């Protein structure tokens, strides 16, 4: 009776039976799975629970990429998982997760989740919601999702290629939504009705683009179609979530393709509205493209990249435009630059919350740019000793490669860095008309380093 009710509510039809794929067919042995996630699955199994490696790790292994991390899904409740593993902690308020620590590795363990209203048949929705909401004595919703079965968990995942369950014990793969077929077809396909799933969580639109760019897949037509129309919904997603997802896209090694696709789907409006402006002018486009290509090639060859540098590059031409306007209003160059930087960051962080530690570095990189033009007296020495010199100089290189800064300036700095003391002295130039003598005299008396225009 109860079972019948559950089947009806959850619409467990024939598609609730997963395809079970043995190792001979998918090729992933348990040694491909991280030590930590294997251990988590083993221990949970030992206690009579189900436990599978899920999501991105399984997808990436099947694609031949090295997974960044391994997530586990289980039918054990978070509190139970926490109790089983001494080195673990419960995180999250509305939906609890457990982080299990094994030395360097942290395995994220989540309990199978129930499907959400959008995934439930319309006529069952009211009953579903009743069952789904847990309210405290003040009527506040304290938990708006309950745990579900493995089938539920599979249906609430975003794309078919992200809904594969790997069991390290039997080395089999459970495929509920033809994820394996879509991997072979190189297709990003949403589970369920695209429109409803995007309304439920608009970030999925951005994720579709990210996975397509990262794996070189195309987005299935029914998955792609509603994006353009619903793109504005991204504006309702908390800026911090948008930032996380955007950072993943930018550091995926396929940022150039990813951003092009974002523009193709008109998805960038709410995120980086500035991109429209930037790509609209040849120099801005060249600059951003160069920055993205450089980042992609660094990521692909395993080098570190700085998100601050990349975001600084994405927004630079916007800063330039605002800088120019502020000067036209009569502000002096340096105060005008600082006003421009703040204005651009204010608008931007409304949509996509770039963390403060990053914006601080971005500002430093930007503020260093006018200082490269000052090549007289002690100033170049001060700049060379600046802790962000490297990033600032790399930024200048990009600017001149895109035609925005003189090639000659970059070459001068290249040479100045390599040169010995005597040669450096010989390279110094006469003060430009804008470089005031008064400052230099004051400096000589006090023997202090040159004033930092960035501090003016
Ligand atoms: P990556 O390797 O880039 O982290 P991922 O697939 O692991 O990719 P995560 O954001 O780590 O992405 O999410 C892990 C899994 O959780 C996904 O594979 C997917 O099954 C599920 N998931 C994540 N975000 C959503 C979402 N917004 N809607 C539905 N399912 C999601
Ligand atoms: Mg992941």
Secondary-structure topology with pairs:
Blueprint: H1 2-9, E1 19-21, H2 23-26, H3 35-46, E2 51-54, H4 56-63, E3 71-74, H5 78-84, E4 88-91, E5 97-102, E6 105-111, H6 125-132, E7 134-135, E8 141-143, H7 150-155, E9 164-167, E10 172-175, H8 179-185, E11 187-188, H9 194-200, H10 203-215, E12 218-219, H11 221-230, H12 239-250, H13 255-264, H14 274-279, H15 282-300, H16 307-328, H17 333-351, H18 356-368, H19 379-384, H20 389-401, H21 407-418, H22 421-427, H23 437-446
Parallel strand pairs: 3-6, 11-12
Antiparallel strand pairs: 1-10, 2-3, 2-9, 4-5, 5-6, 7-8, 9-10
Helix pairs in contact: 9-11, 10-12, 10-13, 15-16, 16-17, 16-18, 17-18, 18-20, 20-21
The structure holds adenosine-5'-triphosphate and magnesium ion.
Magnesium ion binds at residues 55-56, 69.
Record keyword descriptors for this entry.
two-stranded antiparallel sheet; 456 residues; disordered N terminus; alpha+beta; cca-adding enzyme, domain 2; Beta Polymerase, domain 2; 2 domains; 23 helices; eight-stranded mixed β-sheet; binds magnesium ion; binds adenosine-5'-triphosphate
CATH fold type of the largest domain? Beta Polymerase, domain 2
- Average pLDDT confidence is 86
Bound molecules: adenosine-5'-triphosphate, magnesium ion
Largest sheet: 8 strands, mixed
**CATH 2nd-level architecture of the largest domain:** 2-Layer Sandwich
Percent range of helical residues: 40-55%
**Going across the major beta sheet, what is the strand order?**
1-10-9-2-3-6-5-4
Derived structural class:
alpha+beta
Shape estimate? elongated
Beta strands, count: 12
Spatial separation of the terminal alpha carbons: 76 Å
């Amino acid at each position: 009776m109860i079972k019948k009710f559950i089947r009806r509510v959850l619409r467990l039809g024939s598609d609730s039976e997963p395809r079970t794929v043995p190792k001979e067919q998918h090729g992933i042995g348990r040694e491909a799975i991280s030590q930590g996630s294997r251990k988590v699955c083993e221990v949970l199994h030992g206690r009579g629970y189900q436990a599978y490696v899920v999501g991105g790790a399984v997808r990436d292994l099947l694609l031949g990429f090295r997974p960044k991390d391994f997530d586990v899904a289980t039918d054990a409740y978070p509190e139970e998982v926490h109790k089983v593993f001494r080195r673990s902690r419960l995180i999250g308020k509305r939906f609890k997760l457990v982080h299990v620590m094994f030395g360097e590795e942290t395995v994220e363990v989540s309990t199978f989740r129930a499907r959400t209203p959008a995934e439930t048949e319309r006529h069952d929705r009211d009953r579903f919601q009743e069952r789904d909401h847990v309210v405290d004595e003040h009527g506040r919703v304290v938990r708006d999702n309950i745990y579900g079965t493995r089938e539920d968990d599979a249906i609430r995942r975003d794309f078919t290629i992200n809904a594969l369950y790997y069991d390290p014990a039997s080395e089999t793969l459970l495929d509920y939504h033809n994820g394996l077929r879509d991997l072979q077809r190189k297709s990003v396909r949403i589970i369920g009705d695209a429109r409803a799933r995007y309304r439920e969580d608009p970030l999925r639109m951005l994720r579709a683009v990210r996975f397509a760019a990262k794996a070189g897949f195309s987005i299935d037509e029914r998955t792609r179609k509603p994006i353009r129309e619903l793109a504005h919904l991204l504006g309702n997603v908390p800026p911090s979530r948008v930032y996380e997802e955007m950072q993943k896209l930018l550091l995926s090694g396929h940022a150039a393709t990813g951003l092009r696709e974002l523009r193709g789907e008109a998805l960038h409006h709410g995120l980086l509205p500035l991109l429209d402006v930037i790509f609209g002018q040849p120099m801005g486009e060249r600059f951003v493209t160069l920055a993205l290509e450089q980042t992609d090639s660094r990521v692909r060859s395993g080098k570190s990249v700085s998100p601050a540098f990349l975001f600084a590059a994405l927004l630079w031409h916007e800063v330039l435009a605002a800088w120019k306007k502020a000067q036209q209003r009569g502000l002096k160059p340096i105060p005008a630059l600082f006003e421009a930087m703040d204005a651009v960051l204010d608008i931007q962080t409304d949509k996509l919350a770039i963390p403060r530690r990053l914006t601080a570095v971005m500002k430093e990189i930007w503020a260093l740019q006018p200082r490269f033009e000052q090549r007289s007296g002690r100033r170049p020495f001060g700049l060379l000793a600046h802790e962000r010199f490297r990033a600032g100089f790399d930024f200048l290189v990009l600017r001149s490669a895109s035609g925005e800064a003189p090639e000659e300036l970059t070459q001068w700095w290249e040479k100045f860095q390599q040169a010995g003391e005597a040669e450096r002295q010989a390279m110094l130039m006469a003060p430009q008309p804008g470089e005031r003598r008064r400052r230099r005299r004051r400096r000589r008396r006090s023997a202090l380093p040159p004033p930092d225009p960035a501090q003016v």
